[in-house]
Amino acid sequence: MTDLDIRVLDDAHYRAAHTLFRGALHHPPAPDDRWEIARTSYDPGRAFGAFAGDELVGTVQSFPSRLAVPGGAVVPMAAVSRVGVRADWTRRGVLTALQRAQLRAMRESGDVAASLRASEGAIYERFGYGVATRVREVRVKRATARSRQPIAGRVRLVEPAAAGDLVGSLFERVSPGRAGTIARWQGWWNLNVLHEEGAHQRYAIASGPDGDDGYVVYKVTAYSYENGVEKPAVLTVLDLWAATPRAWADLWVFLLGIDLVDEVGAEGRPVDEPLEWLLVDRRALRVVDVMDETWLRLVDVEAALSARAYRPGGSVVIGVRDRFLPENEGSYLITSSGASRTTGEPDFVVDVDVLGAAYLGDVAFGALAAAGRFAAGSPEAVARADALFAVDQAPWCGTFF
Ligand SMILES: CC(C)(COP(=O)(O)OP(=O)(O)OC[C@H]1O[C@@H](n2cnc3c(N)ncnc32)[C@H](O)[C@@H]1OP(=O)(O)O)[C@@H](O)C(=O)NCCC(=O)NCCS
């Protein structure tokens, strides 16, 4: 590897780092007004640059967040983003050096976990990240999508100017919800809701006997007809959160009832969202994709394992390997009453990315063993681990970053 200097970036370099990252994704630099919004999402100490001499050739960043884990506890988490290496510097170890520095800094600052969304599936496993949540994309044909029930409470539209505060405080109330959900940071709201594109979005609030209890942010691309080509009207759900099943159903029934819409589409929804069960004809809904959502990296394995709850299931000792944070290596005893380090012999040993994948309960150790991701040893021990790690709801993040 060429000599690289990895530095914590400050305000003087944020814009160059942002431009480098956008360039790596083949996007042009952000115009000034957009940059002023993006700048608010750079936190001191959380952006790193790789320098070859004085030249910035790669960057990574993270946002300060929190992760809900099975059982309802919440742990400090770094939401890793804006990862990019200049095209003339790739495959020379720049990302590896940045990852090494970032993981060390996260560990030292007390982040228990790190999470990211990957542009490609082959990048992050080597750094200890495993796919921990998945999402589905659905499309609903409005012509045949009759809901089984009417709106039970009330759904009202609110003006974009008033929406930011309303949806922000509602999100705070409904989250942390299921395992995998994360806290949003101010820069997230600035970039995703409180900006000029936010003004073209529609905001609807659900309420019931106890007041407001859910919201949806959506946009509609209207029907068009040009040169004999028809384009259907598509409503896209951007963000939908509900504190109760009633609020959730009301929001969907509202969306499916909006006139002059041919299709309702939603990406990034939980894989177990029961939308098809709300429809008289479930075939009005098509699942068009199921894909990885967030990749989870346990930065402090002991703290992470201790934070989550376990089901009854006897006990198991899991050995952990971690090339980047060797202090995580060792054996962990998991029982229904908690987890702790042990000097006992492990029932099986996994790389830290495998543990990250299984941690929130989205995939069973049994499935990972069957796929050859670790040597199972005794199938009974793996079955015990799966009983302990089992969850009721599929974990889901629901926040794009
Ligand atoms: C992805 C990216 C950051 C990798 O940076 P890099 O400096 O080339 O990575 P490294 O040289 O440190 O590679 C480390 C290892 O990962 C592998 N690797 C890196 N990127 C990979 C990719 N996209 N696909 C497959 N393998 C990849 C390398 O081959 C290398 O493997 P080795 O250790 O067996 O030799 C860089 O290619 C990039 O900026 N891509 C475009 C933007 C992007 O996708 N960013 C990520 C957003 S989530």
Automatic annotation (TrEMBL):
Concerning PROSITE patterns, the annotation shows: GNAT (PS51186)
- Binding site residues for acetyl-CoA: V83, G84, V85, R91, R92, G93, V94, L95, T96, S119, E120
Which keywords appear in this protein's UniProt record, sorted alphabetically?
Acyltransferase, Transferase
Coiled-coil positions are none
Q: Is Magnesium tagged as a keyword?
A: no
The yes or no answer to whether the keyword Nucleus is present is no
Kindly list the GO molecular function terms attached to this UniProt entry. Answer: aminoglycoside N-acetyltransferase activity
User: Active-site positions, per UniProt?
Assistant: Y124 (proton donor), F401 (proton acceptor)
In terms of Pfam families, this protein maps to: Acetyltransf_17, Acetyltransf_9, SCP2_2
Domain N-acetyltransferase, chain residue ranges per copy: 4-152
The record's Gene Ontology biological-process terms are:
aminoglycoside antibiotic catabolic process
| InterPro entries for the chain | Acetyltransf_17, Acetyltransferase_Eis, Acyl_CoA_acyltransferase, Eis_dom, GNAT_dom, NAcTrfase_Eis, SCP2_sterol-bd_dom_sf
Subunit and interaction comment: Homohexamer; trimer of dimers.
Q: Known NCBIfam families for this protein? A: PRK01346.1-4
The record's listing under PANTHER family reads: N-ACETYLTRANSFERASE EIS
Family under the similarity heading? Belongs to the acetyltransferase Eis family.
Identification of the protein by name? Putative acetyltransferase
Origin organism is Saccharothrix australiensis
